[in-house]
């Protein structure tokens, strides 16, 4: 019986967390984009503000892959940090962990 109550409580927490998680994911994407632009200005070609796309022939393979690698690492780190912080805040407010 206690296991059933715990599962129902956890399911309710997951459902309540969804809108909160969606908003935090959008914010994380915006923040990560701004961080990446600043990092790319320092690492990439100073004349170009944006990283090269995979199909842009005027850039080397190394530049394209480096841009994608840096962008992916920044987005993953920011998303993980924001998601974890959001889950902790949700747990403090509701007493329920939204995951697991």
- Structural category: mainly alpha
Major beta sheet, specifics? Answer: none
Helix fraction by DSSP (H/I, runs of at least 4): over 70%
Instruction: Sum up the overall morphology in one term.
Output: elongated
Averaged pLDDT, please?
Answer: 83
Beta-strand portion reads under 5%
Number of strands: 0
Low-confidence stretches: none
SSE order:
HH
What is the radius of gyration computed over CA atoms, rounded to a whole number of angstroms?
Answer: 19 Å
Count of alpha and pi helical runs: 2
* Ends apart, CA distance between termini: 19 Å
Report on the structure:
The chain is 76% helix and 0% strand. It has 100 residues and is an all-alpha fold. α1 packs antiparallel against α2. The longest helix is centred in the N-terminal third of the chain and has 42 residues. It is elongated, with a radius of gyration of 19 Å. It starts with a helix and ends in a 6-residue tail after the last helix. The model has no long low-confidence stretch (mean pLDDT 83).
List the helices and strands and how they pair.
Layout: H1 2-43, H2 61-94
Helix pairs in contact: 1-2
């Amino acid at each position: 019986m206690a296991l059933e109550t715990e599962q129902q409580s956890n399911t309710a927490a997951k459902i309540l967390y969804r809108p909160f998680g969606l908003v935090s994911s959008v914010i994380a994407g915006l923040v990560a984009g701004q961080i990446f632009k600043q990092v790319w200005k320092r690492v990439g070609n100073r004349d170009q503000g944006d990283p090269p796309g995979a199909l842009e022939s005027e850039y080397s393979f190394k530049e394209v892959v480096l841009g994608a690698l840096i962008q992916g690492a920044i987005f993953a780190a920011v998303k993980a940090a924001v998601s974890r912080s959001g889950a902790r805040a949700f747990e403090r407010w509701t007493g329920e962990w939204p995951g697991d």
